[in-house]
Specification:
Blueprint lengths: L9 H12 L18 H19 L5 H17 L5 H14 L15 H10 L3 H21 L3 H13 L8 H7 L4 H10 L4 H15 L4 H6 L14 H8 L6 H19 L5 H9 L12 H4 L2 H7 L4 H20 L5 H12 L3 H10 L4 H13 L3 H7 L6 H17 L8
Helix pairs in contact: 1-3, 2-3, 2-9, 4-6, 5-6, 5-12, 5-18, 6-7, 7-13, 8-14, 13-17, 16-21, 16-22, 17-19, 19-20, 19-22
Length: 420
Amino acid sequence: MYKNELFLDNAQFTNIVNAIEAKASDLVFDETPLSMKKEIVGTECMMTLFEGTESMIKLTKDYRPFVCDSLVPYMRKMQKSFNISADYVTKSLSLNCTCYSNQHNSSGNKSSVTPSVQMFMDQYGYTKEEAELIVKTIDLLNTYCECAFDNKYARIAFTYGVLSSLCINYDAKRWRLTTGQPFESVSIFYLRMLGLSEQEVTDLQVLLNLQHADFTYDKLREEGIDIDNSSFKDETYTKIKERAKDKNNDFAHSIVQIAAFAHGDNMYEEHIIDLGRWAVDLFNSPINSNFSFSYTDFEISFKGDIDSGRYSESDFQSDIDAINIYHRMVENDDIGLDVFSEYYSDVENDSKQRAIEFFEIMGNGYADIGILNTAEVIEKETYGSEYIQQGNDTDVEKAKSIFIQWILSIYEGVDYEFPN
């Protein structure tokens, strides 16, 4: 029988629980049990505690008791789950050997370019070295997910939520409520735990942000990203876009949506209580609908871009790609990068594929119905769209027209000059 001591000794656990039950008046989080010297099951437990206590530390003392009261029962339940089967422990330990090594895959020809690396080079404009770091990171996260989570939605939400939280524009409260993603500091902790060096984490932050937007180096420094000591300190948004040529893909813009889609599906499929996401879904319900349906997946995607008046061809394309790629992940029960590679290969082979696939998803298998449903979605007024449009001097009707013309031109295989 595997006892608690194998994962997290009772004294350490009790000390943390006692601190929380004491309302954390002077909470000092002992980092000793975070050394991660043993099993990944214990690591998962500690990360849950770490995230909860970090959130609590950020609160004023008046609010801490409410957080404490909600954490204690969960942690008690989690502690009981430590007495698990030997098979699960064996699986976890084998994962431990893989994940905690910086040499995640030391076999094979290192000079070869895998389809995933090539995809990041072709579609997103990364160099081979940059693409290899991103692929390595996603492979580590996906391998960890295989043991840590028991369903595909949770795995997708975790992997791409961790990555999107590293992007300046998406490490925000509204996105954490929508995607369930960790705080940036917790995501960094996960990545270090899984074997990335401090240098690699810094490099990853630089790459995700500079591919996403034309951030100045001063802005990166202001956000705590050590661009000056990055291996890619000479990289720029302009260089990345030039290498990508006319692809117009925004990786961070797509993965934050993929994380949000998965988090919402996981919550409803697994009957998970998440008041934050429920609030977001209510906010994105159609006006006078009695909250019977939510347009969250659309408001965080193409509909939200239209309603806000902040859109570009890259935004719309990344919106559509996120929907299509996520649908393939779910349908194929595959969260790996092969899904990205195969999708973009199909798009390269048939320029109409992007729109055909999108409309078929919107129409439950029928593209013609999907066109009608898409038009209905962008016209639908929700509490969220009404709020977004308040004080917005952008011509929303023009934005709707541009989106429809753009996506239909792809569907019909005709050229369309996207307005500046």
